[in-house]
Amino acid sequence: MAGRAINYILHPLTFNEYLIQQNISNEKVSIVKRMLAQDNSKSITLFDLQEVLSSVLKFGLYPDIINVSDNREYLLNLAEKAIFKDILELNLIENRSKALELLQVLAYQIGNVINYAEISRKLGLSIPTVQRYIDIFEQSFILYRIKPFSKNKREEIGKSPKIFFWDIGLRNALVKNFEAINIRGDSGALFENFIISEVKKEIEYSELDYEVNYWRVKSGYEVDLVLSNKNELNGLEIKLNNGVITKAFTNRYPEAKTLVITQKSFY
Length: 267
Hints:
Helix content is 42%, strand content 13%. By secondary structure, it is of the alpha/beta class. The protein has a six-stranded mixed beta sheet, with helices on both faces.
């Protein structure tokens, strides 16, 4: 009998869901709206936000993290075995070891513009194979790409995407690094990945009218996150502690609202 199918995608927990399930807070917060409003008067929390964030940036937001006794062991097992189970059963990947190596290379490059040719040379895979494997990882909800924002200005990058992981804990397992956030060199990249994933989850779940992009010019100036629709243009610089929006962006888009998002202002 003909029926109606509805696809509903469940991502790793949102930060809000994590706080509720851990009995830390019952407050429902729209991170997107709070960040865009920059309403710091509402940013006072009754829990240690930095301590909770530090744990999330190490172990991620997969639901089972709340229940397992050893977060590291769970995530390492997930990275080495579980993530390939369905992919291998469907015969989508011919070379498991190269695919895992590719995932590890991408894990080290979160927040970077993808250079398919460079990755191809490093792994000894053809460019089409690299692109196909990344497509499979994206369709399997392991990672995602965001495209550059461009209005066809000659200096702007208009095609090359950036790579991010849906779950930071899985990413850390792939690079085998669960060190404290304050002593590792990739803490800024982890926070950027976290914020962009939270934004994407909220936009999907709440059906918000925003496109998610980054912005970069060939000379290297960039803005980490651009949220736009037909009425708004928002440029967000994501820094763990502090930062500024490049004038290269504000000069090109004087109508844009510009914000700096830090660990103290995102929630």
